[in-house]
Amino acid sequence: MTTTRVHAPSTHKVRRRALGGKPARGHERQRTGRPVRRGNPQTIVAGKDDPTLTSVGGLGAFGVFLQRIGFVPQLHTHFARLKSHKNVVYGMPNQIRMLIDAELSGCHRVFGLEALAGDALFTYLAGGELPCLDTVYRDLERFDADALVALERLMFERGLADVTVGMFKRVHLDIDTTVLPLFGEQEGARKGHNSRYHGRPSYHPIVARLAESSTVVGAKLRYGDTGFGAEQAADVIEYVSRVRRAVGKKCQVYVRIDGAADCVDIMSAIDDGGDYFVTKADMTKDLIGAIAAQNR
What we know:
Helix content: 25-40%
Structural class: alpha/beta
Strand order of the largest sheet: 6-5-1-7-8
Oligomer: single chain
Distance between the termini: 100 Å
Strand content: 5-15%
Low-confidence stretches: 1-9
Number of strands: 8
Radius of gyration: 24 Å
């Protein structure tokens, strides 16, 4: 009696096929020396609505826009080194572009790529096929400290690219922290203040946004149990300095922060730079007395 071993397809292949997507062929491409090349968005022509083709038709125009502003070469300059071996199939700049497209499509987690693998336009722009999820996770782990700094710098430089000296007489920089609840064992996930999911591990990032241009000009991912106080004064001043360099010396910069910024170190640092701050102070008896003693 003979037996035959049946090899079951991997879970992601079954799931992807069920959603109408093509399985990843990274190993095959590596053996034959055929790296993935992203599709050219300039070749896309808009036609009649056809839900069987795509649900993210705006990605074509978005891709053309990124080409026009020179964003793609910047990705190669900063991140190609993270995957530099000669047999690379899914280059790091392409992976970043794919994740940007995914975010724009409403996919905020890597797992969502399984559904997007069935979208004809998304797949075309990604190079004809999407890598398996394990490959994407491994590529995200390649980001070292220098790459993270470069990514944040690229973000704020693009965010301030259209802001010029003399454009505004007054601008408002909103700095805030937010809680990102996590439902796994992600690196840096810690229990901290979480008003919605009590006791749930989370991240506690800082985000700085220039209101007049509606762009993020600073961001920092932090552990979930990290507070906001004197330790963040250097970050706040860095965000203010970025805006100041863009708008010029004559423009008034107002920094708006919630009650977490009721901190002498932060307020003094902003004031020392000649800028203004708006925050919700803790109305202690001493502060109320000091306000009452003012003549104006």
